[in-house]
Amino acid sequence: MKNFILRVSFFICLLALAWFFSELLISYVQQETSKKLNMEKEYEQAQNYIQRVVKQEKKARDSKIWYESRVKQNTETILIDVLSRFQRQRNDFRLLSIFHDPMGIGIRAEARSGAIVQFLEFCSDELPDFTPVSIVLTPPSINLNAGALNCEFIYKRNSFEQSQSKMIPLKPMEKTNEKIQFLSPFPSLKK
């Protein structure tokens, strides 16, 4: 009987030790698998980062090549190309002239207000190396096309660093002594 109790107690001790070591083994395996998963995740993140950097580098290299080829082109040629592509889209934008100005190169056109807004958006996409310096809108004389505005845009050409940012704050206009007249859609009731 004593022998039986010793064997049972020894068997229970072996089971307890086996259970204890199995718990240790399971926790060790879980730690190793979590380490491996973390390493795989970090490896995947590193590969994604490298792919992003390679794409950014390729994009920067392509934009540098594009800019260098663009610098060799004549400014007037670039503007005429962009204007002709825009005029194929809109028939209510008519180029009057291209002129040189101390601030840059200017464009005079006659267009409706919607075409002017679309032209500015089109130029911001198609001319990243140009910045509008001045935009002047004036109503035409009464005898001319009703609803169209005379507009004058002056663009300056940017360096490569400026053309990448695409957004350059414009300088505020200088104050003149001209009096500004405000036109109200409602006539004054005062006599």
From TrEMBL:
Keyword terms: Coiled coil
Entry coiled-coil feature ranges: 29-59
Superkingdom of the source species: Bacteria
Name of the protein described by the UniProt record: Uncharacterized protein
Species: Methylacidiphilum fumariolicum (strain SolV)
